[in-house]
Every structure is written in structure tokens, then in C-alpha cells.
Description:
6-stranded antiparallel β-sheet; 203 residues; single chain; mainly beta; 15 strands; 0% helix
Amino acid sequence: DRLFGKRPPSNTEMKFQRTSDGGRLYFSSSFNYVPIDESLKSYSNGIKIEKTVSKVVGRSDSGEPILEEVSGKLDRGQTYYVKLTIESDDDRAFLIVVDQIPSNTEIVNTSFLTEKSYNEESDEGSSDGDYSDYDYYDGNSFTEFRDDRALFSKDLLRKGETEFHYYLRPLVKGVSLLPAAKAFLMYQSSFRTNNATSRMKVE
Length: 203
């Protein structure tokens, strides 16, 4: 309950009772929640994340997306290019990036044939200059898209800037929370970063 408006914790008790005379009692539980008072300020320690959202207004002759950066307002049904830039002050290992999406949007999954026109060259994922993603010792990458977030990982994060990106499409008009994008090192969790939460309007 403290996640919602800083109210005091509930006094509700949970009881587990065995209905048979013998044997062991097994139980499991899970808890899903959507906090209504989430507000994060930008933070960085060792690594830094920046997030930009741009409208895809067309394609160049070479097939690259032509982008127009936006802020705060998105158009329903339009496709947007989300870029996450990670800046590191040193080479680091096992980076995780988590970017939760607003509730009234969806990630454009280009693995489906009907979505291919937005990304025919499969340019989702990461880019860090001349370093090959196929060399395990030079930063093998992994990308996963879920209903509510985009996930990226990189075994070796090079000093300097590394970019991750995906495509986003607003579905429903209205104002929603734009959650903070977060990044951290899997085995050194003190090295972490997030940008600030904000609000997004879909028209």
C-alpha cells in the first residue's frame, strides 16, 4: 500500500490452512501492481542514459529512417523511433537496459511480415561504432520485446557512447506516464542510471 500515495501499510492478514489431516502444505503467491505515484529524477553512477523519441517521417534513398525529434506529444497510429544512448566512463561488463513503455502504446515488432516496412534491414538493437556484435569478447548483444517494455543486454560495454533503439506506436489517445529508462551492470548493481519520468500526450 505504501506504493500508492504513501499511505500506511495495510493490516490485512493472510491465512493458509490445510484441509487434509496429513501431508505437507505447499503454497505460492505473486503480486502484480501499477504504482500511481511513481516519480523518478535522473540519476547516474559510472554510466549515464539519455532517451530521445523521434517521429519517422519517411525513408532516405539508402533506406535509413528520416527522423523528426518530438517532445511530449505523439500522434496516434504514427511510428516513432526511440533511441537510448548509454555513456560509460570506462569499459564495463554485462550491461542491462530496461525501457518500460507508456500504457497506451505498443512496440512495433519487426519480426512480423506486416511490420517489416519500418525496419527491413533489422536495424533494431545496439550500435557502438566499429565493434562487432557477433564477437563475444567484443560485446555480444541481446534484444527482447515484451508487451510493456524493451530489454537490451550487452556483454561488453565499451567506453564512450553505445546506442540501443526500437520502434514505438501510440494506440490510444490520452495522457499517460512515460516511465524512466533504466540501465545497470548485472554483477555491479551500484553502477546504474535512469532518466527522469515524464508525461506523454497522444492526440
